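[AMINO ACID CHAIN]
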Amino acid sequence: MRLIAKACATILLAASASGAAAGVIYEAQGNLYDIETVSGLLSNLRSTIEAQAWFADESLARDLANEVGRSLGLPNTAGMYGPMFATSIYDGAVADYTIGWIYYPNRPGLPEENRAQSHSFGYSNTWTFAVGSLVGPVPSMVPEPPQLAFVALAAMLLVGRNKRSPDAA
């Protein structure tokens, strides 16, 4: 059911968007997010990183890192980690660094949908960060055809019953 609602939302978004971002739609905490990646130095991407919906929200960053998993690749540390969902940037005494959540598929003993871990990236290397935007809440469930048929049948029975009832006037 959730998959159907997610697919409908993606199709509606694509149909109504004009020049929409090339990201992929992911669901976390009852909302849909359009997510893609950007690579570069922390010093060049700082304002972009700080503008993300998950910046300063550890829970959302972790949930999205798990939801995205490997689907946007494992671009960090020679193919070990997924893109970083940064949650904070620290101005260090020697150098700036960022902390956030990354998907790490090689964590034995954990289910695949729960392999995100907190990690820090330094300022002097090129890293790949998740960027995106809130699309909106997950749409309410669309009834499936058998449910619609049941509702239609119930409505017809009620209408037919009211027409035969002498009290219906």
